[in-house]
Amino acid sequence: MMEENKWFPDVEKIWFNGKLVKWEEAQIHVLSHGVAYGSGVFEGLRCYNTIDGPRTFRVKEHIERWRDSAKQIRMTIPYSDEELIEAINNTIIENKLESCYIRPLAFFGYHSLGVHPLDCPVDVVIATWPWENYLGAETIEKGVSCCFSPWIRVHSQMVPSAAKATGLYIGSMLARVDAKDKGFDEALMLDGLGNVAEACTENIFVVKDGVIATPGLDSSILPGITRKSIIELARDLGYTVEVRSIARGEVYSANEIFLTGSAAEIKPVREVDAREIGAGKPGPITKHLISEFSEIVKGENSKYSKWLDPVTKMSIQ
C-alpha cells in the first residue's frame, strides 16, 4: 500500500493509456525516454464547483495547447480531443471531485534510450486531485514576495519556449529553489534580451497609471490560457491592456503587479527584490480582476459561460 501523500488526498484513480487504473498502479519503466530526457508535454487546468455543478475551465483550449506543445517536440498524442475530454470528465467523476486541479501529461515511453524518441510509444496520463490556493491562501490578501532569478527564461531559438514541455521546467525549478532559499515566495525570470518574461509557473502583469501591460510571445513566455482570459476580461471591463516588452525597471516602479496561471489563478505581488510594489498590498485593479474572475469561475457571470464546460459521465472506461 502506498504511503499517504498530503499532495494527493482522497484520490483513487488515474486515467492511464486509455483506462482508469488505481492510483498506485499508474506505473512506468524507469528507463522510459521521458524519464531520461524530459521528453514530455503537459497541461494544467481546473474544474470549478459552479452554481450549475462541476465545470472545467476552457478545457478545449487546454487540449489544443497540449496538442500544439506535442507537435513542437515531434510527438503525436494518440487520442482525439473528444476522447481526452471524456477522459478528463470521467477521471473527475471517478474520484468524486466537485472542484480540482487536472494534470494531462504525455511523454515518450519505454522502448529505446537513444536521444531520438520517435520509435518510442507515447504514454498518456490524466490525473485529478484537490489543489487549492497555489502559493498559499494568505497571498490572496497580502500578496506574493518575488525576486528576479539569476536563471533566464529559455529562448525560442534554443527550444520551443511556447511549448509546455516537461524538460523546460528545469529552469523554473531552479528559479523557484533559488527564490525560496532567499526567503521569497516566487521568482521572476528575464528573457535573453534582459526584458521581463514570466514567473516560474505564471505569467506576469504590470499596472502603471491605470494601464495594464504583459509581455508578449517574443519575450519567450508560455501563452497562458488564464493570461488570455484576463486580457479579455480586463479589456471588457474598460481597462487598457498592452502586450509588449517590459523592462526590469518597470517592475520596480509599478503601481500593481499580479501573476496568472491555472494553478495560481490571480495572485497579487506585494514586493520584488525587497522593493515594495505600490502600497505593498493588492491594488484596486488587481482586486477588481480577482473579484470578477471569481464570479466567472463560480458560474455567476453568464457572459463568460462559454469558458465553462459541464463534467458529465461519458463512454470512456
Automatic annotation (TrEMBL):
PROSITE patterns: AA_TRANSFER_CLASS_4. It catalyses: L-valine + 2-oxoglutarate = 3-methyl-2-oxobutanoate + L-glutamate; L-leucine + 2-oxoglutarate = 4-methyl-2-oxopentanoate + L-glutamate; L-isoleucine + 2-oxoglutarate = (S)-3-methyl-2-oxopentanoate + L-glutamate. Pfam families: Aminotran_4. Its EC number is 2.6.1.42. Pathway: Amino-acid biosynthesis; L-isoleucine biosynthesis; L-isoleucine from 2-oxobutanoate: step 4/4; Amino-acid biosynthesis; L-valine biosynthesis; L-valine from pyruvate: step 4/4; Amino-acid biosynthesis; L-leucine biosynthesis; L-leucine from 3-methyl-2-oxobutanoate: step 4/4. Keywords: Amino-acid biosynthesis, Aminotransferase, Branched-chain amino acid biosynthesis, Pyridoxal phosphate, Transferase. Belongs to the class-IV pyridoxal-phosphate-dependent aminotransferase family. Homodimer. Acts on leucine, isoleucine and valine. SUPFAM superfamilies: D-aminoacid aminotransferase-like PLP-dependent enzymes. It comes from the Bacteria. Its cofactor is pyridoxal 5'-phosphate. GO terms for biological process: isoleucine biosynthetic process; L-leucine biosynthetic process; L-valine biosynthetic process. One of its GO terms (molecular function) is L-isoleucine-2-oxoglutarate transaminase activity. This is Branched-chain-amino-acid aminotransferase.
